[in-house]
Design goal:
alpha/beta, TIM Barrel, 364 residues, eight-stranded parallel β-barrel, 11 helices, 14% strand, two-stranded antiparallel sheet
């Protein structure tokens, strides 16, 4: 697209590309918003805690909880303040990680998330989205609260990953070689969701792949196209989220997952996503899923190391309006979420339920 092209080149190259706009490099964005000492300490402490849980050095569970997607940084920071206080209350049993999702995979079309379109008006100011996303992650980390997010675009981690404690690879991308390669180089633990059909094979294969070194095309901190060589990520684990219209959080499906991981020579570390098809996308069912998982742990399950819950300040979801000033405060614009009161009760119920059942999980 740069420089003068011959008439023949114009007939064969970039026929469907209308424009390319340069954006600041990862290094330039990091220089504009440098990592603070407080934020760095939060990220390091969060990653070390999640790793210790996965290695069975810490008997606690970790819970990734928060909005389906962030569209209003002010509301997200309000939520973070509440979650930080709750995290202190349950820290003897649970490690709370705020779900801070900026990118949304779309089945067909729709809003692609805060990084891609922060104004929600199809202006696609990705340069602005990256900067504002980094600013919010910094603010949350400075509160002392770790963040979890989905790694969707393979370039975004260069801008944001130093502020992320835990990453997810979604059901649509778990089978993607690009995302497996990227995850092998991420500094944070990574949860791979089972496929959209509910099958485990793609997640199990992803866990095998991500633990090994890879070499692939990427960008360096200055934005130059580079060969990226990774050492492999030892902290991959599976996330059960249901699929093909069915749930897979019950004890039978968990046992099937345990067997699949064992046969593949992988650690039996399982996280349960209480939303998506495990709740039939009905937020009112998420606490029931969490209760079922809690009961499994009380009854002796040792493979479940975490849960994910989609939660916001207020209940449900809403369509994106042309005038975004008219959006309801603290209500999701993507999947429906439980409200804060329900979130707090659900988290406390999990803590109170499993508190006396986690001994003996270390050293497994």
């Amino acid at each position: 697209m740069t420089g003068r092209r011959t008439p023949l080149e114009a007939l064969v190259d970039n026929l469907n590309v209308e424009a390319m706009a340069e954006i600041p490099s990862p290094q330039e964005v990091q220089e504009r918003l440098p990592l603070t000492e407080g934020a760095a300490r939060t990220v390091l402490a969060g990653r070390n805690a999640v790793r210790a849980i996965l290695e069975r050095k810490d008997p606690r569970l970790f819970v990734v909880v928060g909005p389906c997607s962030v569209h209003d940084p002010a509301a997200a920071l309000d939520y973070a303040g509440r979650l930080r206080r709750l995290a202190d209350e349950v820290s003897d049993t649970l490690l709370l990680v705020m779900r801070v999702y900026f990118e949304k995979p779309r089945t067909s079309v729709g809003w692609k998330g805060f990084v891609n379109d922060p104004a929600m008006d199809d202006s696609f100011r990705i340069d602005e989205g990256l900067l504002r996303a980094r600013e919010l992650l910094m603010q949350i980390a400075e509160l002392g609260l770790p963040s979890g997010s989905e790694a969707l675009d393979p370039i975004c981690p260069q801008y944001l990953a130093e502020l992320i404690t835990w990453y997810a690879i979604g059901a649509r991308t778990t089978e993607s070689q690009t995302h497996r390669e990227m995850a092998s180089g991420l500094s944070a633990p990574v949860g791979f969701k089972n496929g959209t059909d509910g099958g485990l094979a793609v997640a199990v294969n992803a866990l095998k792949s991500v633990s090994h070194p890879h070499n692939f095309l990427g960008i360096d901190p200055d934005g130059r196209v580079s060969i990226v060589s990774t050492a492999g990520n030892r902290y991959g684990h599976v996330v059960l989220r249901g699929g093909n219209g069915k749930s897979n959080y019950d004890s039978v499906n968990v046992a099937v997952c345990e067997r699949a991981l064992q046969q593949a020579g992988l650690s039996q570390n399982i996280m349960v996503d209480c939303s998506h098809e495990n709740s039939s996308k009905d937020p009112s069912l998420q606490p029931l899923v969490a209760q079922n998982v809690t009961n499994q742990i009380i009854e002796g399950n040792r493979s479940i190391i975490g849960l994910m819950i989609e939660s916001n300040l207020n209940w449900g979801n809403q369509p994106i309006l042309e005038n975004t000033a008219n959006l309801k405060y603290g209500v999701s614009v993507t999947d429906a979420c439980i409200d804060w009161a329900t979130t707090e009760k659900t988290i406390l119920d999990i803590r109170n339920g499993v508190r006396g059942s986690l001994e003996g999980r270390t050293g497994l």
